[in-house]
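# step 3/5: fold
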Amino acid sequence: KFLTGSLLVASIGGPVLAGSLLAGPAGATSTCSGGTPVTTPAGTVTVNPGSGGTSGTIQVCVAGSPAINGTVTASGAAGAGGVGGYAVADGAQGNPGAGAGYIGVEGGSGGYVAVVGCAGGDYIPNTAAAPGAGTSDNAGNNVVVSSSGQQSNPTSGPCAAV
């Protein structure tokens, strides 16, 4: 449920959030970092406003759940190089199966947009997303499909289950 709901939020709200939120120091890893945590019934919400009004990050964290633990992070940046950002659900490594991986959307200047995902590992924060070598973006995240024509269909390894 966590990853399904997070994917829905990431795929629908990702491009909107990436354009309106601006990147801060928190990253889309499966653990919370930075900001001021506030405990809610749904988990811990951490808001990290970034620096100088040109960047920001919001991160929702779930820890201590018997089902799925991890984070949902939306982050973006505006700078001389353009605007970019991401919205990613990233499961904790202790989760079963594909729940230990990540799924989300990212975009960068020049109109690059990609769906990223892998059944294992953490998303590498990438507010300057651009095509990389093969089926990865420029930060090394697995690209499922992108506006530049990249597409992955691995048959083995942790990303094969996406």
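# step 4/5: annotate
The chain is about 10% helix and 35% strand.
# step 5/5: archive (pending)
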